[in-house]
Amino acid sequence: MKIATAVSQESDPQNGLTHFHENRAFSFLLAKRAGHAILALVVAKIFNLRRTLTLALRRRKAALLRHLIVPADLLRASYVERFTTCGKANCACAQGQKHGPFYYLISNLAPGHILKFLLRDQTQQQSAEQGVRHYQVHWERLEELSQINAELLRRGEPLKPQP
Ligand SMILES: [Zn+2]
Fold it and tell me: What pLDDT score does 92 carry?
């Protein structure tokens, strides 16, 4: 099965839910911040560091390094909830009562190569949800560290601890 890597997003302000469409073939209903669906990060959070004092940057960097322990359960993937129709004309899903929810782990490996499978039980679903979340927290800390290093470099500061 081929799925496009691009994911678009539509917000529905009435119920606080976000609809994600992947290649127009699948529709994901994602509850914002509800923990039922977590999408893989595609853009970096931008940390505004230009006006931060060098000493403060160094302190933040030290704190980040203390917390940078690779989570053993990390998953670089999206955790998604999906409702489906089976195609039978006399089924309730044809009238809008879709089957589900079904939970999937989806990860883009390379263009045209997608890792995707159904998470069958609650244990699997919880592991997937946590693994995705732990990856994202770790990734965000790495990203902040990288942006601090870039800012220190811009100021002509050393990036490694001085002897
Ligand atoms: Zn059906």
Answer: 93
